[in-house]
Amino acid sequence: MKANREMWGSKLGVILAVAGSAIGLGNFLRFPTQAVIHGGGAFLVPYFISLLLLGIPLMWMEWTIGRYGGGFGHGTAPGVFQSLWKKNRFIKYFGVIGIFGPLVILIYYTYIESWLLGYTFYSLTPKFQEALATGQIANFLSGYQGLEKNQFFSSLIPAYLFFLVTFFTNFAIISRGINKGVAKLCKVALPFLFVMGIILVIRILMIDGISTGFKFLWTPDFSMLKSAKVWLAAAGQVFFTLSVGIGVILTYSSYLKKTDDIVSSGLSSVATNEFAEIILGSSIIIPAAFLFFGGNATVEIAGSGAFNLSFVTMPIIFAKMKFGLFFAFIWFLLLFIAGITSSISLIQPSISFLEDEFDISHEKAVKIIGLFCFVLCHIPILFISKGVLGELDFWAGTFCLVLFATIEAFLFSWVFGINEAWKEIHHGATIGLPRIYKFIMKYVTPFFLLIILVNWIIQEGIPVILMHNVAPENKAYILMTRIVLLLIFFILVVMVKVAWRKRKLSSDS
Ligand code: PFF
Description:
Blueprint: H1 11-22, H2 25-37, H3 44-70, H4 77-84, H5 91-94, H6 97-122, H7 126-133, H8 137-144, H9 157-175, H10 177-205, H11 210-218, H12 228-242, H13 248-253, H14 262-293, H15 295-303, H16 308-319, H17 324-358, H18 362-383, H19 388-415, H20 418-426, H21 436-465, H22 475-508
Bound molecules: 4-fluoro-L-phenylalanine.
């Protein structure tokens, strides 16, 4: 066990670090797209139900077990799970998902984040203006991603350079540690992000006739609620946006002191994220797209690809405004900043794992993980046209999230025991949780999650495993991606085994 683990220096620092992890591309890109394709305002009904019954309880659970495990010197799920269920020899291997998931999300998330840096730069160039003026902004995106060669881009080199800058910026921040790196960045980045978001919302509200666009959001199509798919999508969005159910918050909270307040800090981070998601995230893209393109076209654009609304539609909308390119610049910069405070949180579990379980120094851990991730990031960069990005998102950003959250909830309420857990949450708390949450955490959250998991496996998991929707020419690439993922998982399992054997030997001697 590492002798002196770093601890968060201030309450504001942790709250902003967790909120920074939560507020990301999920709020501004994923949420509007999900809402548009799942019934507009109607999506908010399962969304808020999932938030109250799954998201918020999971946030508190993860803060609690993270702090608890941190007390034993463990900052990642294998060790944290093991300290919650000491008698079970296998539970630590389930915890591997809490390192694997963030690592895999990081691999594609960093690349998408780098597009935003690229677009922040290009939004100020004549090339971008030309693409907008000639109605070729979609080609601009495919050229940038290397999907086609055109007059805007003849190679992947510009995208690769922006990727390099993004990647090294992330690792430079994380190399400075949780206080001087993560907390310091979030203290500056989040206020800046909110200011930019509010400027954009005000600009959107000033568009003539924008209330028509808002009507879509607040006139729900309730017939959508009959579909289980909408409920699964809403729950998935809640996990993704809050960064819960994957091990990241757990790692951050392992650096809390036993006396730190979890109840109010956990809730503050959720509230900050929801402000960014519901107020800022949904008020920018959705009403503007509806006003300019109409309902059907917007649903179609959103359904045609996760990035089209934000990378194609938004610049077109901004171009119709006075000083539009300036707003486009702010839009992409906001997204880039939102992305970076999230991606650094995805790196932290792997680093903590090496430090805590192998006693490796912080500098060395950053270098090892940096090298490993750098190599892996080339998978989505080189094979994006083969559907690899979606495949990575599916396993790590959807499946692992629900699976890990289910395990975590049962461990918390049933193995550790809700009474013990309730005491642990309230340690250091200045306000008490409403008692109804004791019931929710014991009966509702774990079983609701189990229902989602089973439904999800039946509805989506099986067709995906059998590659029903994969084009024949892409099957080999998808298979290779799965083999690489399994290999990463296997390496982590072996590392956990080695770490525990070493620990046992040293405690025996
Ligand atoms: N919450 C982030 C977003 O909304 O973009 C994404 C994310 C970060 C998911 C960290 C999971 C995670 F562990």
